[in-house]
Amino acid sequence: MIQLGFDNDLYIKKQTEHIKERIAQWGGKLYLEFGGKLFDDYHAARVLPGFDPNGKIRLLYEMREQTEIIFTISAGDIEKTKVRADLGISYDMEVLRLIDDISAMGISINSVVITQYTGQPAADAFSHKLTTRGVKNYIHRPIKGYPTDIEYICSDEGYGANPYIATTKPLVVVTAPGPGSGKLATCLSQVYHEIRHGHVAGYAKFETFPIWNLPLKHPVNLAYEAATADLADVNMIDPFHLEAYGQTTVNYNRDIEAFPIVKTILSRIMGDENVYQSPTDMGVNMAGYAVCNDDNVRHAAEQEIICRYFKAMCDAKQGKGTQDAVDKIKRIMQELKLSTTDRCVVEPALKRGEETGVAAAAIELPDGQIVTGKASNLMSASSSCVLNAIKRLARIDDDLMLLTPIFLEPILNLKINVLGSRSSVLKVDDVLAALAVSAATNTMTERAMQELPKLRDCEMHSTCMLHSGDEGTLRKLGLRLTCSPEFPSKDLFF
User: Fold this and answer.
1) Taking all residues of the chain, what is their mean pLDDT, rounded to a whole number?
2) Could you say which DSSP state residue 291 is in?
């Protein structure tokens, strides 16, 4: 059972008020750089139990009459078909998905800016696609000497060479499908153009992590380091804020390193040497004020760090990540005196695996009970574990079979004889499909099916890495999955 530690309504209220203050501070026009995810911010939801994963878009929805959105995407990322790991879709497709979802909510989409354009054919194709679908889009080319040649950047040949994007709302949110997409440069370019056009406009950054008014070594801030271990981000005391105000606040290395340049550019554009005194000043982040139970938040963040450690180990094992990221998270765990067995489902899964000599999995149910499952010739360990979990929730005797051969044999026939699969093992989606069909005529199966929603937010561990299909289905069920860094078989095509 999740123990709440964060007041989401209070957070939305305070964050909204702070954004409105910033809009007023800059004469009624604010370019707000939005990092992180607009939808499905499950990292925040995990480390701040009670945080709404869609809280950011909910905030913008409440301010929709005052808000329009500009998306940025790097031409290089389009060309390389860069993929969002959590969704498995390319950055350009993610932009289209976000436009659809946000437009459906009645929030205004202004345009898409393709940044760092140097003639990439894939970027041209994406621009054409946007144009044919009625989406305004603009090209930003690299600026010579960026970001150090301030004179050139703040000139007609620098920001002035970028097209001016006309906006009509007081709040312009600049967001992107991922990091390195050119959000900051687009914001600063627009502020430059607004002032050239005789308008007053300001810049700020919507922040969530690290939380500036929590201690540097608070597990929530350390969980952010763990989540960005592959980027080599490091949380730091903001030296500029400390010097200006005598107040200790937390920021991260990239923002601190970039601040002198950003401040100089803003000061040059706006003609004000005192625009901001620190990167903390630039941020709009009220999350720390909404923590209502620090113990619960600390525990949740510690669990997230352990999960990140397992993910980093699996990524390194598959060649998708580095050992440096693994080592960094390990150091964080040592600092907090955490071990992998502090995750409650790890030991039961490993024990079942040792007892049976095959792959195993464990799920913690909402009432704290832990059920396990093992691999067989018929089912994967994950499939077995999910079945055992819903049987336990539905209070169905372990000896009773939820699925009979009459439902499983057609699926096996389809997999092997029609689709040509070499494996006869039923994956999680196979089992769920069989359950759905069986439930039409079997009341016991129907009862078990009704328990599936209760698996959302339950913890799960597998003693081996899963195929993408199984992993995706488990995440759709809402299970918080970790895997030991072991391959499920000797097959090379994994």
Assistant:
1) 93
2) B
Share of the chain above pLDDT 70, in %: 98
Phi, psi (degrees; rounded to nearest 5) at 259 = -55, -45
Q: How many CB atoms lie within 10 A of CB 275?
A: 20
CA 353 to CA 355: how far, in whole Å? 5
Examine the pLDDT at 400 and tell me if it is beyond 80: yes
Measured CA to CA, the distance from residue 379 to residue 392 in angstroms comes to 18
Give the Å distances, CA to CA, from 235 to 36, 212, 241, 274.
Answer: 16, 10, 14, 25
CA-CA distance, 182 to 138, in Å (whole number)?
13
pLDDT given at position 88: 74
Task: Write the DSSP string, 149-181.
Answer: -HHHHTSTTTGGGSPP----SSEEEEE-SSTTS
Superfamily of domain 358-483: Domain of unknown function (DUF1846), C-terminal subdomain (3.40.140.40)
- Cβ atoms of 448 and 401 closer than 8 Å: no
Structure tokens at 257: 């390193």
147-195 pLDDT tens trace: 889 999 999 999 999 999 999 999 999 999 988 899 999 999 999 999 9
358-483 and 8-206 share a CATH fold: no
| Number of Cα atoms under 13 Å in the Cβ half of residue 267 | 13
d(CA 66, CA 61): 10
What is the reported pLDDT for 3?
85
CB 64 within 8 A of CB 17: no
Confidence check: pLDDT of 254 > 60: yes
Taking the C-alpha atoms of residue 387 and residue 371, their distance in angstroms, rounded to an integer, is 10
- The CATH code of the domain at 8-206 is 3.10.630.10
Phi, psi dihedral angles at 31 (to 5 degrees): -95, 115
CA 383 to chain centroid: 26
The residue ranges of every structural domain in the chain are 8-206, 358-483
Contact 362, 349 (CB under 8 A): yes
Weakest-pLDDT range from 70-74, 267-271, 290-294, 302-306: 267-271
420 falls in which pLDDT band (50, 70, 90)? confident
Residue at 449: amino acid letter: M
Instruction: Please write the tens of the pLDDT for every residue from 20-49.
Output: 999 999 999 999 999 888 888 999 999 999
Q: How distant is the alpha carbon of residue 209 from its chain centre? A: 12
SS3 call for 13:
helix
Distance of CA 454 to the CA centre of its chain: 23
- What is the crossing angle of helices 8-25 and 55-62, to 10°? 50
The answer to whether the peptide bond before residue 147 is cis (omega within 30 degrees of 0) is yes
Separation CA 440–CA 408 (nearest Å) = 15
Residue 67 CB coordination number (10 Å): 20
Tens digit of pLDDT for each residue in 46-60?
Answer: 999 999 999 999 999
